[in-house]
Design a protein that fits this description.
The chain is α+β, with helices and mostly antiparallel strands and about 70 residues long. The chain is about 45% helix and about 20% strand. The chain has four helices and two strands, in the order ββαααα. Strands 1-2 form a two-stranded antiparallel sheet. It is globular and about 35 Å long. The relative contact order is 0.22.
């Protein structure tokens, strides 16, 4: 398990998420690997992958789509 901390582009708050992945997989993604995010992190759900890609949380998306 890895704890990833990212800043929300919506709220500017730091958020953390426990992810069942490896530092090697995160490094591959953040260093511009050729594979798609769902291929690098097949065991993670869409919300976890979104957090890795953008820093948006589920609450952020719920607020964005409520308007």
């Amino acid at each position: 398990m890895i704890t990833l901390v990212k800043r929300s582009p919506k709220t500017n708050k730091l958020n953390s998420m426990e992810l069942d992945t490896t530092s090697e997989s995160l490094n591959e993604y953040y260093n511009g690997g050729d594979r798609l995010v769902q291929d690098i992190f097949p065991s993670l759900n869409v919300d976890e992958r979104e957090f890795i890609m953008t820093g948006y949380t589920v609450d952020d998306w719920n607020e964005i789509h409520a308007n």
